[in-house]
Amino acid sequence: MLTDLVEGCRKEDRNAQRKLYEHFHSKMLGICLRYAASREEAVEVLNSSFYKVFKNIHRFDDSKGNVEAWIRTIVTNTAIDRYRKESKRPNTIDLDYAYKESHGSIAVEDLTAQEILKLVQDLPPAYRTVFNLFAIEGFSHKEIGERLGISEGTSKSNLAKARKKLQKALSINYEIKRRQHAK
Amino acid sequence: MPNEDFFNRIKSKLSGIEPEFDPGDWAAMEAMLDRKRPIVPLRMMRVAAGLALIVLGYLSYSYFSNADNSRHALSYSSPGKNMVREAKTSTAPEKNYPLTFAEKEKVAAQKREALPKTPAAETKTENPAMAGNSESPASFSGEKEGKSSKGNAAAASPGSAVLFAAKKQADSYKGTADPGTALVSEPGESIVLVKKETLSIGTGENKGQTQIIPFEAMIPNTENRRRSWWIGMTANPGLQFVQNTQGSFARGVVAGMTFPGLPLSIETGILEDRFRYAEAPAASLFLGENHTESEGSLSGISIPLKANFHFRSRNRVQAFLSTGLTAFIPVKEQYVFSFDMGKLNNQSQALEALIVRDTFNLSNAAGQESKTTGTLDFSSSNGAISLPGSRGMYLLASAGGGLNFQVNPRLGFQMSAHYSRSLGGMGIEQRNMNRIDLGMAMHYFIN
């Protein structure tokens, strides 16, 4: 089925394009949401990605990989490109987060996926991007540095700050929830 | 909690997020697909703008480096112009040099009859330098091989000598000769220049001085770039501050890379360089006070290697500093001199003036003695001799800075100023070179 859709997209068949978009929409939007600060921004990244997919579908070689992996790569790269284009001096924010580490592990379990996604989206773009690439996509700091045009040290630093900020936010959320529950 | 555990917990939570399909998302996608691209893409317009800048720079160079525009001292108004017109209306063809020897002789005879009697005709054969005029064509082959004596360093065939005199009776005349060459004519061919002596381009207190090689550093804003290789074009109109101010021009392609995460970049390239200069005449010059001014021009290939430092910037304008070394390989060099024909005694003297003799005591940049040839074109008012350049290389150090304008993540332009100075010549005579360049460049990121 996917092969037919890809073939239809190669012929610029709008119906095939719609079906392919619909097929991968949820999964790819899930990725975009992690890199974006809002749903609107995520949809922009998603559509930019699919625009590239449709314009370059003739380059896709079925024998060398599956279309999902190919689209996923495009989506991730588009998200990174967007960050690189819009980022301004990502390392100038000096954070001083006092957090209770013990709350971090509890909070992750107690919060919903949507709540955690919101916390990730609230991270500054530089931290959020490094966090996604390292923690979710599994890139090394060296690879992240090359992709984002930053040094390995900056990548490590951004990840540590992202972790700190996330843990603090998780602690606060956990505390709020706990108090609400106590009432 | 260890990092890995913390991240794994978040990852497992986030992996379940798969929002439902919203038809509105597809509507936006469809609108994007239906959007037509502009007929002329923005990128193309920017490239065109860059090319326009380069063309503008070249035109500026052409204008300012033209002797008629930059130095009015070379312009004379006199009846000589009328005489040139008379020569043109004669039966002689406009371009005689491709003619055979016999044809030249015939045309020369016609011209001899058509021209008014001047002292030149009488003194011509008395002048030792012109003794070759009465020699047979066979004697010129020896001249071409550079075997002639000093007193007969240059000679012209009878036909070509008279033809030359006939065509160049203008009192405003600029002859050209290659540094270190003697002029001989070969029957039935273009006039041939054989390197005989050395010719010094600088004279007086400026002896040995000329100007430098421009190279435009290109420092794009590379912040947050995943990869930082770039290619580009550069065009540099330059100003020279040695004897006087004249235009110069360099153009070429460059390529470079930025070190990820560092404000440093390196670059190299290949550029065509052209510049001109003017010198006061040497006291020893044969023409004495009649020789008003001499002009040299040098062109060649520059191969730079530069290191750049760019200051951090929050906007699209970024300042930079650069320094490096440039190898300059001369390709062509000319020496141009002018004299007042009206003040000379006769046409023979003019011809002698054009023929480079040992009395000039001239030397070219390399001081090389190898035989070289070129064509003297009398069909234009300036005349022109194009000759191979010296074999060797100059090494130059330069430093400068400027501003870079990042048009978009892929394209940038910049303006800059550079000061350069020669470190020395390799296989070539040392020259002191000083110059300030005003540069323009356009660069394009490969990725």
Subunit organisation of the chains? heterodimer
Instruction: Please give the CATH class of the largest domain in chain A.
Output: Mainly Alpha
Described by strand count, sense and barrel closure, the largest sheet of chain B is: 8 strands, antiparallel, barrel
Instruction: Enumerate the spans of chain B where pLDDT stays under 50 for 5 or more consecutive residues.
Output: 66-101, 117-227, 241-245, 279-293, 346-388
Q: Specify the number of helices of chain A.
A: 9
> Rounded to an integer, what's the Rg of chain B over CA atoms?
30 Å
- The strands making up the biggest β-sheet of chain B line up spatially as 5-6-7-8-9-10-11-12
Number of helices of chain B: 10
| Main structural class of chain A | mainly alpha
- Helix percent of chain B reads 10-25%
Describe the protein's architecture and organization.
- The complex is a heterodimer of chains A (183) and B (447).
- Chain A has 183 residues and is mainly alpha-helical.
- Chain A folds into two domains: 2-86, Rna Polymerase Sigma Factor, Chain: A (Orthogonal Bundle), CATH 1.10.1740.10; 101-182, Arc Repressor Mutant, subunit A (Orthogonal Bundle).
- Chain A is built from nine helices and no strands.
- Chain A has helices at 2-10, 14-35, 39-55, 67-86, 101-110, 113-121, 125-136, 141-148, 152-182.
- The model of chain A is unreliable at 88-103 (pLDDT under 50).
- Chain B is built from ten helices and twelve strands.
- Chain B has helices at residues 3-14, 23-34, 42-65, 67-70, 80-88, 101-114, 119-123, 138-144, 158-167, 347-354, and strands spanning 172-177, 181-184, 192-195, 209-210, 229-239, 247-258, 264-279, 291-310, 317-340, 393-406, 411-426, 432-445.
- Chain B has a single domain, classed as Porin, CATH 2.40.160.20.
- In chain B, the strands form two sheets. In chain B, strands 5-6-7-8-9-10-11-12 form an eight-stranded antiparallel β-barrel.
- In chain B, helix 6 crosses helix 9 (158-167) and helix 9 crosses helix 10 (347-354).
- Chain B has 447 residues and is α+β, with helices and mostly antiparallel strands.
- The longest helix of chain B is centred in the N-terminal third of the chain and has 24 residues, at 42-65.
- Chain B is elongated, with a radius of gyration of 30 Å.
- Chain B starts with a helix and ends with a strand.
- The A-B interface holds A 14, 17-18, 21-22, 25-27, 29-30, 33-34, 39, 43, 46-48, 50-51, 54, 80, 84-85, 87-89, 101, 104-105, 108-109, 111-114, 116-117, 120, 134-136, 145-152, 154, 163, 166-167 and B 1, 3, 5-7, 9-11, 13-21, 25-26, 28-30, 32-33, 222-228, 260-262, 314, 409.
